UniProtKB/TrEMBL annotation:
Catalyzes the formation of acetyl phosphate from acetate and ATP. Can also catalyze the reverse reaction. This is Acetate kinase. It comes from Arthrobacter subterraneus. The lineage of its organism: Bacteria, Bacillati, Actinomycetota, Actinomycetes, Micrococcales. GO terms for cellular component: cytoplasm. GO terms for biological process: acetate metabolic process; acetyl-CoA biosynthetic process.
Length: 383
């Protein structure tokens, strides 16, 4: 089956076409085409509807007379309703649209893509795969905010968690590497990209995660603040900040960018190595907070059997990993400096901890497109 995976960001649309055969289950299949439309919202590509039409044209050329068997859409926010991948129809599309306010940067483009893809390939089944659904197993004491119940009942204000597609994918790979069935896997998984989150997994289920109602809570990120005292927002509102200004402040002008001046981890570790104090402070803040979450989640998952790192930073930044692992020494975790430095640039999962480390630290490259393709094919086959 040929599966087209569509991943719409706020200003980009990435696609991947994969061939999934029954002969290679669980691998995400073989990629036969990929591409991206960037800078959506600027002159040439007005919106994600136009972007999808461009993707359809590219694919008409590259696929020739081979037919798509399914389209899988990554949808960031599934709200309280969507607890797993779902076959899309008109009602589902409307329900997704109702979730737009919960993820204003990410869900509206996905809804536009779903509608445009339904027009481009009217007879091809479409599936939505959610970043929130792996966290459906959060117990109530971790998904609740200590806020009045009415806010949850009226507005759905609770912790949802994100990055679930990636977390489950790398978690299953890590379990395989350790020779542990996924249903017995206890560990802490950190997805560290421009957005970053940590998740406590117990028995293959998410039991706590650092992102909450939106992908803003938790770790310090590229341009997002992560945790701040909500009193700061009340203070700024009283100073006359508007909702849009607060949104921009917290989502686009905070995090590594606010402290180091930009959000590229490679440039920040280079600058810190050259003695730049702001870059050093940004690293220290990000590493401290991540180590604190990992320590807390070691408890939350009942004693982690592994720490798993993924995402652009987790997979590639040896200096950042070294800094975080150094802070985990009180847990008995020991880095293997050579393995940490050597790792990088491959699809292989690998260990970066020393043989005498209390628990292994694994770097497992993520592949969200592969995971979405698998989930999409499974829904379509079960139809
Ligand atoms: P997104 O969340 O947008 O998918 P990625 O997972 O691609 O982001 O991660 C982006 C982050 O990874 C950036 O901070 C970038 O600097 C960092 N990164 C990517 N490659 C490297 C590398 N080779 N060394 C250090 N950091 C890297």
């Amino acid at each position: 089956m040929l599966v087209l995976v569509l991943n719409s960001g706020s200003s980009s649309l990435k696609y991947s076409v994969r061939r999934l055969d029954s002969g290679n289950p669980g691998t995400g299949g073989q990629e036969i085409a990929r591409g991206a439309i960037e800078r959506i919202g600027e002159d040439e590509v007005a919106d994600h509807t136009v972007a999808l039409e461009l993707v359809a044209e590219e694919l008409a050329g590259s696929l020739g007379n081979r037919q798509l068997g399914a389209v899988g859409h990554r949808v960031v926010h599934g709200g309280g309703r969507f607890t797993g991948p779902v076959l899309i129809d008109i009602e589902i599309t409307r329900a997704l649209e109702l979730l737009n306010p919960l993820a204003p940067l990410h869900n509206p483009p996905a809804v536009l893509c779903i509608r445009a893809a339904t027009r481009a390939w009217p007879n091809v089944p479409q599936v939505a795969v959610f970043d929130t659904s792996f966290h459906r197993t959060l117990p109530e004491h971790t998904w609740r905010y200590a806020l009045p119940d009415g806010l949850y009942r009226r507005h759905g204000i609770r912790r949802y968690g994100f990055h679930g597609i990636s977390v489950e994918y790398v978690g299953r790979r890590a379990a395989g590497l350790l020779g542990v069935p996924w249903a017995n896997f206890d560990g802490v998984i950190a997805h560290l990209g421009n957005g970053a989150s940590a998740t406590a997994v117990r028995g293959g289920r998410s039991v706590d995660t650092s992102m909450g109602f939106t992908p803003l809570e938790g770790l310090m990120m590229g341009t997002r603040s992560g945790d701040v005292d909500p009193g700061v927002l009340v203070f700024l509102l009283r100073q006359g900040y508007s909702a849009d200004e607060l949104d921009n402040l917290l989502n686009r002008d905070s995090g590594l960018k606010a402290v180091a001046g930009h959000n590229d981890m490679r440039a920040i570790t280079d600058a810190a190595a050259a003695g730049d104090e702001e870059a050093e402070l940004a690293l220290e803040m990000a590493a401290h907070r991540l180590a604190r979450y990992i320590g807390g989640y070691h408890v939350a998952c009942g004693g982690a059997k592994a720490v798993v790192l993924t995402g652009g930073i987790g997979e590639n930044s040896a200096p950042f990993r070294a800094k975080v692992l150094g802070k985990l020494e009180p847990l008995g975790i020991r880095a293997d400096p050579d393995a940490n430095e050597a790792a990088g640039g491959t699809e292989e999962a690998r260990s970066v901890s020393a043989p005498d480390s209390a628990i292994p630290v694994l770097v497992v490259p993520t592949d969200e497109q592969a995971a979405i393709a698998e989930a999409t094919a499974a829904v379509v086959r079960a139809r």
